[in-house]
Amino acid sequence: MENTFKTKDLAESSFLLAKGKIVDRIEREGKTCWFIFKDNLGCQKLVNDFWFNNPLIPAKSYYEAIQTLKNRIFS
User: Fold this and answer.
1) What is the pLDDT of residues 22-33, one digit of tens each?
2) Residue 17 near residue 68, CB atoms below 8 Å
3) CA 67: distance to chain centroid?
4) Would you kindly state where each structural domain of the chain is located, as residue ranges?
5) Which of these, 3, 5, 47, 64, could form a disulfide with 37 (CB 3.0-4.6 Å)?
């Protein structure tokens, strides 16, 4: 089994990227982009923190992560 985490949520993906997780690839299914990250268990823990524990992250880091993912989608 592949040790990857898959999500189509841009906010969630940006948070993972800002927290240092590595985007392995982006897969497109029609108009939907799936962000595939390495380290499934680490990503699942961070996503749980993102949605339920209100973790702090510098706003600039989060913004830059969003911009990075958007650039990868539209380039």
Assistant:
1) 999 999 999 999
2) yes
3) 12
4) 4-74
5) 5
pLDDT one-digit tens code per residue, 33-75: 999 999 999 999 999 999 998 778 999 999 999 999 999 999 8
Distances, alpha carbon 52 to alpha carbons 44, 49, 68, in Å: 12, 5, 25
Q: Are 13 and 19 in contact (CB under 8 A)?
A: no
At 37, which helix (H) or strand (E)? Answer: strand 32-38
Which tokens hold the place of 73? Answer: 């989608």
Structure-token pair, residue 64:
């830059």
In the block, tokens 């949520």 appear at 9
pTM metric for this prediction: 0.91
Q: How far apart are CA 25 and CA 62, in angstroms?
A: 19
How confident is the model at residue 56, as a pLDDT? 83
